[in-house]
TrEMBL record:
Keyword Oxidoreductase in record: yes
Pfam families assigned: PMSR (PF01625)
Annotated organism of origin: Orbilia blumenaviensis
Region (Disordered): 206-230
Entry-linked NCBIfam families: msrA
Biological process terms in GO annotation: cellular response to oxidative stress
EC assignment: 1.8.4.11
Protein name: peptide-methionine (S)-S-oxide reductase
Gene3D superfamilies: Peptide methionine sulphoxide reductase MsrA (3.30.1060.10)
Main EC class the enzyme belongs to: oxidoreductase
Length: 230
């Protein structure tokens, strides 16, 4: 409860950004030529965005937006999503260059940076809005997401993964002050489960030919990140 209130009230006191309407961009959002979208959820979207931006800067990540997806209401607000009644997840939508980083690498990275075994929870953040999920944008993405999930479940997370794999739904950008939140607020709240784990890919994975961007080096933890062998 304390984590929830610290996150919620932080933005309702003295912020000039309060009241910004979230800009909707549904699952048919136009994407620049030769790029693709990846949409994932892994708890508080501030930390998820921050770690993806940090590790894939200049490595194929073109843009990353935090927002809401997977719910029933149009144009949801942060306060309503935090209340748990809209069905939306706090999520991250990545625009990436597949010639520089593969979708597979981005999904492998997802399983390194959060705990996918705690249903509807990350650290002290509890509720369906904090669920672990992959929202695929094509059948090829669905196949890759399922393959990576099977690998991570069997080799990294002890067959306890609760991540949902589901087709992409309407996307709504979160309010302006959420975008790049931890860049603008270095001392802001960070979920303790959001750090890069040094898992190793199993020998012979994946079965099909993998691109050079799918190799472990593409997602190795940087020296200044906390590390854990789990």
């Amino acid at each position: 409860m304390s984590a929830f209130f610290s996150r919620l009230t932080r933005h309702f006191t003295g912020s000039s950004s309060i009241g910004v309407t979230s800009a909707g961009g549904g699952s048919n959002t136009a994407v620049p030529a030769n790029t693709e979208l990846a949409t994932v959820a892994a708890g508080c979207f501030w930390g998820v965005e921050h770690v993806y931006r940090k590790h894939f800067k200049d490595k194929g990540l073109i843009d990353a937006r935090v927002g809401y997806t997977g719910g029933d209401n149009a144009n949801p607000s942060y306060a309503k999503v935090c209340g748990g009644g809209t069905g939306h997840a706090e999520a991250l939508q990545i625009t990436f260059d597949p010639s520089k980083v593969s979708y597979r690498t981005l999904i492998e990275f997802l399983y390194r940076i959060h705990d996918p075994t705690t249903l509807n929870r990350q650290g002290g953040d509890v509720g369906t809005q904090y669920r672990s999920a992959i929202f695929y944008h094509s059948e090829e993405q669905r196949r890759i997401a399922e393959d990576v999930t099977t690998m991570a479940n069997q080799n990294w997370w002890g067959n306890r993964i609760s991540t949902v794999i589901i087709g992409a739904a309407d996307w709504w950008d979160a309010e302006k002050y959420h975008q790049r939140y931890l860049e603008h607020n270095p001392g802001g709240y960070e979920c303790p489960t959001h750090y890069v784990r040094t898992f190793k890919l199993p020998e012979g994975y994946p079965a099909e030919e993998q691109s050079k961007d799918s190799k472990p080096a593409a997602v190795a933890a940087s020296a200044d990140e906390p590390k854990a062998e789990l």
